Amino acid sequence: AIKAGTAAITLAGKNNVTATVTVTVKELPVEGVALDKSSAKLEKGESTTLTAKVLPENTTDTDKSITWSSSDESVAAVSAEKTESGESITVTATDKGGKAVITAEAANGAKAECQIYVPIHIEGIELADAEVLRGNTVVMQDYVTFIPANADDDRTLTWESSDPEIASIDPQTGMLTALKEGTVTITATTVGT
């Protein structure tokens, strides 16, 4: 089978005996695209390799090219716009962090996607000053600001008071109880980072 179409195949034997059969050849089009990864987690600046193949691999389509794109180039960039089936590209996470979808698309529109996740890490925390009347309690978590605000990391904190006789604080919940007049320093520490 060389190309799409119809051909008559004739078998000739002795004494002018013949037999004819009609053969129809059909194209085997690209039906889909397969990626070697469906998702990847990359830290900022890290890279991963993605390979896409058109399916079926024995397709008769002459255009086996793959067009690559990122849903958000500011999160994850691809190294090549176009490749042939089976070739690899590099996906690199930028310094922004977030989520992006890398799409590999065949010439006939068949697609495959890879979800890229670039975590946004806590770079710092800030605690606002608080005035508490003796005998009252406050939740110190309400005084915390995470930097950046959209960080993905675990926001669990451990708490410590510089003078538990003036103000005690539950190390896990951050519940502060004012015991007597004075000033204390409250320290909050991220658990994960």
Describe this structure in words.
By secondary structure, the chain is an all-beta fold. The chain has no helices and 18 strands. It has strands at residues 5-12, 18-25, 32-35, 39-41, 47-55, 65-70, 76-78, 82-84, 88-93, 98-106, 111-118, 124-127, 137-139, 144-147, 157-161, 167-169, 175-178, 186-190. It starts with a strand and ends with a strand.
State the distance separating the first and last CA atoms: 63 Å
Mean pLDDT over all positions: 94
Percent in strands? over 45%
Q: What's the helix count?
A: 0
* General shape: rod-shaped
Oligomeric assembly:
single chain
**Main sheet record:** 5 strands, mixed
pLDDT < 50 runs, ≥5 residues: none
Strand numbers in spatial order across the main sheet: 4-11-10-6-8
- Strand-pairing-aware structural class: mainly beta
Quick overview of this protein structure:
The chain is mostly beta strands. The strands form six sheets. The protein has a five-stranded mixed beta sheet, with no helix packed on it. A four-stranded antiparallel beta sheet has the order 3-5-9-7, with no helix packed on it.
Keywords for this structure?
5-stranded mixed sheet, 18 strands, 4-stranded antiparallel sheet, 193 residues, 0% helix, mainly beta
List the SSEs and their pairings.
Elements lengths: L4 E8 L5 E8 L6 E4 L3 E3 L5 E9 L9 E6 L5 E3 L3 E3 L3 E6 L4 E9 L4 E8 L5 E4 L9 E3 L4 E4 L9 E5 L5 E3 L5 E4 L7 E5 L3
Parallel strand pairs: 4-11
Antiparallel strand pairs: 1-2, 3-5, 5-9, 6-8, 6-10, 7-9, 10-11, 12-14, 13-17, 15-18, 16-17
